[in-house]
Amino acid sequence: MKVSIRMKIFLPVTLILIAFPLAVWFVLSYSLNGHMNYNARRNLESMIKRTESIITSYESSDNSLWEDDGTEEEERGLLKEFREMVQMTEGDTRLLLLGARYRVIYPKNYDGRSEMTQIYSRLLTGTTESGGAWKEHEILEETIGEGKYLLYYRTLDTDDTVRTVILYCPIYDTRPIMGEISRLVLLIMIIMAAVAIVLFWFVAGSISVPVNRLCEAARGIGEKRFKKVETGATVRELCELENEINHMQEKLLQADQAEQTFFQNASHELRTPLMSISGYAQGIQHGVFEDISQAAGVILDESSRLTEVVDGILTLTRMDQLRYQVVPVELGINEFIEDQMERLEGLAYAKEIKLVFHPENEHKIISDAQLLGRAFSNVVSNCVRYAVHEVCVTLRKTEEAIEITISDDGPGLKSEELAHLFDRFYKGKNGNHGLGLAIARCSLEYMGGRIEAESSIGGAVFILTLPQDCRSFAVEECKESW
Description:
single chain, Beta-Lactamase, Heat Shock Protein 90, 3 domains
């Protein structure tokens, strides 16, 4: 069963608030009973040790003490020792001394104490019944009357006054105390539960309400309703989630606007050559043009332009969808650049621009020749378009990358152009389709590289940074990172 965040937090806390005092009560009840038993047993054992010590000292004394004239005097001394022991002992352990025929000789007023009378009666009952006598030299737990007692019973090997020693210690009943504690615990539990339930209801709400608002924002994103969400959350993780969702909405809004702009620009770039092709084709069909070869040449030029735009769009789309398969090969960077510049000589010659290359020591890299060639040729073509006399290419090797710097001696780049230079379909004054630099950036980034543009006094400068090995940026790993 699915429950809300508020109930998910509220119900366990409520159960804990109820269960915890009850657990405390049970633990306290058992521990208090155990503590009472422990104290009573410890008190009784202390008295037993003293009693046994007195008895042992008299039993190990000279035998003449037990003869005729001295016997009564020494037994009075034994009784005196027991009396002094009781007077000097602290605690709840009591002493009952019996003489011949189970006559009580200490204390004299035993019948004024109900527990002594009951213990004495129990002893007499046990001695008269078959097998019912108490075991000597053992601590016994007995329920006598309404109370519980720990008892110690033993007889003495004498012929006169003291014949039996009984030590007992009451085990106090904790039920009255626990009754008071129960009422107190119940009262505290009710107050704490009431306060805590109200508190945690609002605490849970402070989490569930922002989450609900974030869920509404997520549904809005799915419907392309990008609106900044403000949850009023005070929890750090929720605040971070709110910031991330708002940041994501800004990015998605920018992407949506860029997509709309892309389709508008793409449709414009496609419509212009199509209209030209259609117009010249209709002119040929109706015999408007006397020189058909000229019209056919225009159609071929526009078709070539259209093909170039479509190829550029398809290339960007494949890389956006991570469907372009990187084919890493080993390249000698100097040789590769020289080969690319030879292919661009015709374009440079038509513009009367000189291409200059300053090679470094030959260095091998692993890269995709098609992507690198397209990025390099697009940047050089752009520089040729704006250069006055020459385009210069230089190399610089770093520990982890290769930097290719392409510069021209043209008018340079304006600050507002730098911000949108690599946007799709963004065209400068002499721009062609607005896709060349966008393709160059995507191609380099697809291989783990990057491109930067700067404007200097001498013209525009483009810096292409290539990794030494692009195999770690294969399409499968790119998908996993997304």
